[in-house]
Structures
1.
Amino acid sequence: MERAPDPTPTPAPQATPKPARGQRAAYPLPGRPVVELHRHLDGNVRTATVLDLARRHGVELPADSVEELTPHVQITSPTPTLVDFLAKFRWLQAVIADYDAVRRIVRENLEDAVAEGIDHVELRFSPYFMGEVHGLDAAGVAEAACDALEEAADLPVSAKLIGIISRTYGPEIGWQEVDAAIAQRHRGVVALDLAGDEAGFPGDLFVDHFRRAREAGLRLIAHAGEAAGADSVRQAVEELEVERVGHGVRAVEDATVIDLLRDRGVALEVCPTSNVQTSTVESYAAHPLPELLERGLIVTLNTDDPSISGIDLPHEYRVAREEIGLDDEALETLQENAFAAAFLDDDERRRLEQAAHRRDEHGRDQHQRDEDSNHQTRGQS
Ligand SMILES: [Zn+2]
């Protein structure tokens, strides 16, 4: 795969500037839920947390300050391939020494989602990968993640978990991950996903795993069309019978795959910065996001691995507008698509809509009260 010609800077997460009064905000759409569908738990670990966990558990890191550790756990320029990108997970994985660490990472992911203005987040994780270095049991990791979800009921965010099969460990270990997800399906795990080295471990090794998950009532997703071409997307849709595809951007290479996605209503979880950093696309300007939207696909916008990429969800919407060139209408479509493609039941969907509406009403009322009191203060002076 060709290396992207000009290294794309990865700015630190910044709050999205509020539009001036009277100006229409394309994102977030007022009164509508903000939803993130594609975010890896273990791709979003605070660098300070990595340091703290390492100290507690005696794990030796290549640096002992946030500043010095950052280049080891964050992408600072595009990596030649997906496999190089995945190497950044090493230190994040190395500090997950017990189930408390798993719970902490889930908790902090939910806090981060709140800080980004997200109303509903779907967090995915490979329980075997998270537990591998310290020999934690995949089933125990999934259980701890669900415990943390329950303990976070105080946070103003709705959340679901997605269990991942890491392809790289092969089909045998894949069964442990499927069983771990199925065992927690009534405690917040709603779906199964397939991730990892797409080119080295194709989806056809995992057809039986997906069948078992489907029969157990899990929804289905697969990473495809990222490191491998459009055929991997076709395989995910036709053989794994997924409802959503992680990335899927290389579907543009084959018009018949685009038709298949559209006909079956399969949503794409697109993550532009991740795609540039893994050299899946050459640059933001060359990203096929506008084309995928124009061709009538259900495209959603996501972060993938916020701490590794040095981004947040508002950053990706800003990139979609400023670097990829989407207009307000397209940004609104992305936000609404994510809500429509979320794994929520009707009641959960209604509650989220009401909460988003109330929040924005409250924000407007508060703004009006502030304005009124400003006028009063000025009048008295
Ligand atoms: Zn991903």
2.
Amino acid sequence: MILVGDPNVHNSDWLGGLFNSIWSAKVPPKVSIAAWRFIMNYVPTFSNLSMRRISISHQCLLCSDATETNVHLISDCVFVKSVCAGLGITLPFRSTEQDWLFWLSLLFKGIIKSQQRTLVVIYWAIWQTRNQKLHENRTKNPVEVIQFVSSYLHELDGLDNISHQPSAQSPSQWQPPAPNSFKVNFDASYDKATATSVSGGLVRDADGLIMAAFSCPNRFVRDPEAAEAIACFQAISFAKDAGFRRIVAEGDSLVVCSKINRQEQDLSRISPIIFSIKEKAKGFESITFVHVRRELNRAAHALARFGKSFSSTQIWLEEAPPVVEEAALIDRWWVNPPD
Ligand SMILES: [Zn+2]
């Protein structure tokens, strides 16, 4: 099932509601990110690995009773069900025909905020438990996981502030977003002869790691400025469909960025696109538009160029084409700071 569709396609409200519950849970970003990845099937469960032909075993490491897929782990696994039950969350029945993601959205909708938080922590803990079994052959039973989750929640209650990364950064470098938000860089390549453009955009977390990326070809584009504005629109639409609710959108077109940030109505040729961007922006919990120099937008620039070789929209999850990965690596300057 494709969750992150074409940037032009709107996902239904229930999916947005589900993502919102996950991102707004009061847990450290590493927990909500892990839970999100787990749910979105971006983690290498065995069935994912076998699709990539790295076959090992297919049995669920927790219950040994079924094939390990994320659908199994989230809605069907007896081990997971008993952990949830032990923490006061009863998983409703899911018939095999029911879309499991829709089922999950109903589950989140039917419980209160504090339980939603518990569930996010459970999914994170389940994934850790499963990995400890796989890599360290350490086995935990449901009771131990229940104890772990309870004491972790207890610890969170005692914390006033979620830890913040120091933000001493040089403005001459790409800036990572704050720990509870994501940065979306966008750019466009434009071909005057054919009046076509390719938009490219990528979402990164506070560690500068790529969460998702896309490229998208466009026809009937008047000029480079329109191409940049379209790229901005498609990038924030993409981020929204992928469930990111707090973002910083960053591009290297000063004209486009300042038009978006201006209060009064834009009356230029690209005003319809600027208007659409502002409308789309209303769907975020928090969004800011930032202009950067071209050199600092290198990853999105590489994507917009790379996308030229495709006639349709391309989407990458948790990775990007090598040229883009390389650019993103340079952006993570603080990981290997120069002397
Ligand atoms: Zn299982």
